[in-house]
Amino acid sequence: MTEQDIEEGKGLAIISYLTIIGTIIAFFMNNDKKNAFTAFHIRQALGLWLTYFIVAWVVSGFDNWFATLGFWLFFGILFIYGFINAVAGRAQEVPVLGNLFQKWFASIGK
């Protein structure tokens, strides 16, 4: 990734973390440009959102405030970490799951 790729793709990379709709918008807007920096963050955000929804469904069955608090804290930190990296222009994977997201969604942005 070059500095030019990072500067051109930073806006869509940031949008991809805002909501699942933002991820979808960034995905379709990046289809024409194929910016590597944006694609990296789209893969991270998509993985976070899909994992978030799956784990939320599981945690909702526990009806326990500690499980819910832990869930929100865990995903809140991961989303903030990814968002800050996008703003700073770094292509750094989110902890714990980021490398899996890059493998699972490798076809995005290619």
Give a written overview of the molecule.
The protein has helices at 3-18, 20-33, 36-60, 65-88, 98-104. The chain is mainly alpha-helical and 110 residues long. The chain contains five helices and no strands.
Search tags:
110 residues; mainly alpha; 78% helix
- Low-confidence blocks of residues: none
Approximately what portion of the residues adopt beta-strand conformation?
A: under 5%
Rg is: 14 Å
Q: Main β-sheet: number of strands, strand sense, barrel status?
A: none
Number of strands: 0
Outline: elongated
- Write the H/E string, N to C: HHHHH
> Cα distance, first to last residue?
13 Å
Average residue-wise pLDDT: 93
Protein structure class = mainly alpha
Kindly state the percentage of residues in helix.
over 70%
Count the DSSP helices.
Answer: 5
Write the layout of secondary structure elements.
Elements: H1 3-18, H2 20-33, H3 36-60, H4 65-88, H5 98-104
Helix pairs in contact: 1-2, 1-3, 1-4, 2-3, 3-4, 3-5
Short description:
This protein has 110 residues and is mainly α. 78% of the residues lie in helices and 0% in strands.
